[in-house]
């Protein structure tokens, strides 16, 4: 377990910035406690200082996971975001759906006066919900709705038509282009979905 | 009685004043020469020679009095310098010393010149002198002035030479290109060896030329220079702990393994510092983003164009007198008809605009 180096922090922030923009400083600088990022076996974890001190006393081989896993670094030092980060990237109050996780602290929601962290949403038709949950990209034929003004390569949260969050992705085309493109083109790249909880049950830390 | 006593008291007080004043005034025949920058005072008055002869307590007392007087004069001069209070109103009074005028002698012996190299000795022997060479040479093939060596040199790029003649008397099976490459490598190596030998000789002879790796040449690459700079920083009495850094040089902690092992920040190190560093990085990253988001601007433009196109289409479909129909602010000539036609078209145009 070690802190992230400068280059690694930059990569992680750039990736997170695609989803929440400048609000990363809400993650870094929280009034209710000191939270930090730590790297353990190529996975990036987000945890409070109290938890960090407890985890520091566990030997390295026996330590499985700590705090919340945001994602992992691949062998070529690219950062892949995991679905376990969804709760920190999407607005929390989502009609009671979503996986059971520890309650988020208040600063990440409205009372701070910031806009909701994630504004770009994509709704997927029921037919291609399952396809997305299996890890495939979203095609134009499966696209239900998309937020206006989505730029290309913008981080988005993927919902089903019933407003259930399914995961997140990256918009492959801007909203304008989405209208003009043919039905078999990819409109949202898959990044993480809640199906991972079942598929990668043993490797998801 | 009382008057006598008062007088006695006054006389005593006056005597005390005189004593005080006497202690700060010194009589000298010749004025002293002062160099206040060096806190130096030179007394050219001849000392009473008879008193200085022979050691003894009288001599000591005389010398002490002389020293005290001269010091008093120097201090009086110092008090006349312009002074100010350092550190605000309550700070100490600091005098501003002028520039020193007295040249102090050398502390260490002057540096010895470096001994001549082997070539320099030979050249001196033979009387060979340096010929100043021009920087540009006329290249007949390219018909222009080219450098003597380096990028785009005269005589073409040696790495692209496609022909290497077999010289008379050489083995026909030998690879000429390989031979040329080998000979160049040998020449370079020999040159380097001789350079190092010269440096070692100079170093041994005790001149102030520094040891080989630290000797700056024009041919060192960036990594070598960085290494040399690190060595130079560390070769101070405090092992480089208080050396100032250049503006863009990163502050790196001294690595005990000499840069071979990767070192990370401590796990539970200063979390507040880590946080501030991350916030700083975020600020940098967000400041670099362009204020005008080009994709959004393009999208907005496309939307507008679409809306206009949709409106234009609807307008054309409506009537032959499309121009009249589309324009919404037009002085009505035939009031009722145009008014009636205008309204449905307005609605349609508005619908087309929002739908597009």
Automatic annotation (TrEMBL), chain A:
Keywords: Nucleus, Ribosome biogenesis, RNA-binding. One of its GO terms (cellular component) is nucleolus. Residues 120-195 form the PUA domain. It comes from the Eukaryota. GO terms for biological process: ribosome assembly. GO terms for molecular function: RNA binding. It is found in: Nucleus, Nucleolus. Signal peptide: none annotated. Pfam families: pre-PUA_NIP7, UPF0113. Gene3D superfamilies: 3.10.450.220, PUA domain (2.30.130.10). Required for proper 34S pre-rRNA processing and 60S ribosome subunit assembly. Belongs to the NIP7 family. This is 60S ribosome subunit biogenesis protein NIP7 homolog. It comes from Acrocephalus arundinaceus (Great reed-warbler).
From TrEMBL, chain B:
Keywords: Nucleus, Ribosome biogenesis. InterPro entries: Ribosom_reg. Residues 314-340 have a biased composition (Basic residues). Residues 202-224, 236-356 are annotated as: Disordered. It comes from the Eukaryota. Transmembrane segments: none annotated. Residues 274-291 have a biased composition (Basic and acidic residues). One of its GO terms (biological process) is endonucleolytic cleavage in ITS1 to separate SSU-rRNA from 5.8S rRNA and LSU-rRNA from tricistronic rRNA transcript (SSU-rRNA, 5.8S rRNA, LSU-rRNA). It is found in: Nucleus. GO terms for cellular component: nucleolus; preribosome, large subunit precursor. The keyword Zinc does not apply. Involved in ribosomal large subunit assembly. Belongs to the RRS1 family. This is Ribosome biogenesis regulatory protein.
